[in-house]
C-alpha cells in the first residue's frame, strides 16, 4: 500500500507523518507542493505545520498550491485523504471538508495531550476504536477552533461525520468537534496529532492504532 505526504514550505510534521505511515507498513513518497502530478497512491496525507507561515489564514495559501488540485481530483475519484492539524485547515480551505478553523477561544497556542471521544467508527480511520471510547492524543495549534453554521453542524452530526470530539474542549470548537469526515468517509481532517502518539518513545500508542488499522483497511479495500 502506498501513501503520499504533501510538503509545503513551513510543514513541520511531514516526516512524523511519513514515519507513522511507514511503521504501519505503508510505502511513502514525499510530494512537493509545486508538483502538478500526484503519484498513484492509496492515500494522501496532508501534514501539520505552519504552511506559508500561516499568513492570510492557516492553510489558505497551501490550499491554492498546484498539488492541491490533484489532491482534490484524487478525493473526487473516491481516494482517501488524511489531514492532520494544518492538514485539516488545508482541507477546509480547499472545500474538501466543510467549516473553518478559527483562532482558539483563549487566543493562545495550546500544546498538550487532550482526551478525545471516538464518535464514528465506520471509516478506515476510526474502525480501530470502539464507539464512545476515550483516547488521548496531543494537540499543538493556535487555530483549532472548529466553526461551521448550525445547519452544517446538524448535517455533520446527522450523517455521522463527526469522527472525534474533545472530552474537555480546549479551543472553543463548535459541539466539541476535533475531527470530521467527508460524505463518503474517505477524507478525514482532525486537529489532534495521532502521529505524535504512535510509538513507544511517545509513551502513548493511541494514535498507532489508527495507522495500523488504516494500512489493513486499505489493503482490503
Ligand atoms: N501543528 C499544526 O499543524 C499547527 C497548525 C497551525 N499552524 C496552527 O497553529 O493552528
From TrEMBL:
Localisation: Cytoplasm
Pathway in which this enzyme or protein is active: Purine metabolism; IMP biosynthesis via de novo pathway; 5-amino-1-(5-phospho-D-ribosyl)imidazole from N(2)-formyl-N(1)-(5-phospho-D-ribosyl)glycinamide: step 1/2
Active site: 85, 193, 195
Gene3D superfamilies on file: 3.40.50.880
Pfam family, one: GATase_5
Catalytic activity: N(2)-formyl-N(1)-(5-phospho-beta-D-ribosyl)glycinamide + L-glutamine + ATP + H2O = 2-formamido-N(1)-(5-O-phospho-beta-D-ribosyl)acetamidine + L-glutamate + ADP + phosphate + H(+); L-glutamine + H2O = L-glutamate + NH4(+)
UniProt-listed Enzyme Commission number(s): 6.3.5.3, 3.5.1.2
CDD domains: GATase1_FGAR_AT
Entries under SMART domains matching the protein: GATase_5 (SM01211)
Amino-acid biosynthesis listed as a keyword: no
Cytoplasm as UniProt keyword: yes
Keywords annotated in UniProt: ATP-binding, Cytoplasm, Glutamine amidotransferase, Hydrolase, Ligase, Nucleotide-binding, Purine biosynthesis
Description of how the protein assembles with itself and partners: Part of the FGAM synthase complex composed of 1 PurL, 1 PurQ and 2 PurS subunits.
Function: Part of the phosphoribosylformylglycinamidine synthase complex involved in the purines biosynthetic pathway. Catalyzes the ATP-dependent conversion of formylglycinamide ribonucleotide (FGAR) and glutamine to yield formylglycinamidine ribonucleotide (FGAM) and glutamate. The FGAM synthase complex is composed of three subunits. PurQ produces an ammonia molecule by converting glutamine to glutamate. PurL transfers the ammonia molecule to FGAR to form FGAM in an ATP-dependent manner.
PANTHER family in alphabetical order: PHOSPHORIBOSYLFORMYLGLYCINAMIDINE SYNTHASE SUBUNIT PURQ
Protein name per the record: Phosphoribosylformylglycinamidine synthase subunit PurQ
Organism encoding this protein: Tropicibacter oceani
Organism phylogeny: Bacteria, Pseudomonadati, Pseudomonadota, Alphaproteobacteria, Rhodobacterales
Gene behind the chain: purQ
